[in-house]
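INTERNAL TRANSFER SHEET
From: sequence group
To: structure group
Subject: O-fucosyltransferase family protein

Please process the attached sequence and return the structure record in the designated field. Keep the field labels unchanged so the import script can parse them.
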Amino acid sequence: MKIRTESVQVRCDKLQSPMIPRNRLRVWFVRVCLSIVLWTCLAQLVTLSELWHSHFISGITSRIYHTTLHPLEAENGVVQAPPPFTPPRKYTSNGFLRVSCNGGLNQMRAAICDMVTVARLLNLTLVVPELDKKSFWADPSNFEDIFDVRHFMDSLRDEVRIVKRVPKRFLSKNGSSTLDMPPVSWSNEKYYLEQILPLFSKYKVVHFNKTDARLANNGLPLDLQKLRCRVNYQALKFTPEIENLGQKLVQILRDKGPFVALHLRYEMDMLAFSGCTRGCTNEEAEELKQMRYAFPWWREKEIVSEERRSQGLCPLTPEETALILKALAFDRETQIYIASGEIYGGERRLAELRAAFPRIAKKETLLVHDELQQFQNHSSQMAALDFMVSVASNIFIPTYDGNMAKLVEGHRRYSGFEKSILLDRKKLVELIDMHQNGTISWDKFVHAVQRVHEKRMGQPALRRVVVDKPKEEDYFYANPHECF
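Return from structure group:
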């Protein structure tokens, strides 16, 4: 009996012994599976973290841009991220449109908006625009040095196909021909459909060598007008380097309180172009005249400065500007950012303005040299910084209605009709002369200046239309009311 029991026990042990490694294998297998699951979860978390971080950083950049130019706000006031890019529009391209923009930054900016609209209208493929390098400023910047080219291409892909260059098979060295031409100024939809589109049946590439004011202010279909706005306010985004530094300028100014952006267009090129020499020495007046003759495309050569001034066609001088700002009730504590290049005559001409408003600042005084060094000798990039500050300012005041003044005005209207004091120079120089020769007292001068500008603060208004005189109309980009 004892032996039998031991035999049974041995058999049981033999049966159990294979189970021991099998159990261990099962435990090992479970552990491996858990490890795989845990590592997979960890990898997913890392990926999500990276994606979140990427969206967070791009969200900051987006907020910088949209806070400065056009806030995308929900009803609760929270800034929203821009919507994702829509799928590309599918269409058969009629050819390639090359454009060479002429002028300064804001003239080129408006031209880019127009050329995207033309490409969309004619079902063309747009080549990334070429920027002017031969103007007075001789800025070597390319499109991608000023604007975020990838954002530009992607954000408009549901409207128009944009490429960085013409494919090699369409180049002249490969037997293809390109037509170079300037389109007619202030042209409407009919002109482009009837006069320009047929050219692409013969030339697969058409090059517009001038693009300033080549699209009408008025009389265009609503969808084309809205596309111009979409390009201007959403697709044309400055490079991260420009945006970051521009936002830093805005923050420095805001930390010190509300500020006025004064676009003091008293620069050498403007004075030479307009022939305005009030306050200049005889030597300076001669220097400006010589510059005017040096540029053959500046058609007017012999200009009477005082006559031009009386017509309101001269930028206000720094001294006149100081007088007007005081009449508009700005006091010595007003923080003023001068958005401009080098003032002609330097500190000598700024002395009276600085004495009246000591809290004057410029980008050169707010930033250290190293921060601005990368933008030196690149006037368009420097102008982009001034543009951002001007759009973000509490009040914007241009002393001349050039392209920057008009586009900033339009941005501020689009951003909720932020205050822009649009000076009536013709009336102002008349009042200034009357006050300085003793015809009217200071109190009457102040009352008259303020009354003249009651309805010139950038309030909502329809553009002025002048049939057959597009140059006398209100400029589309100063007041794109179809887009509000």
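Handover comment: Residues 240-483 form one domain. Confidence is low (pLDDT under 50) at residues 1-20, 43-77.
Transfer complete.
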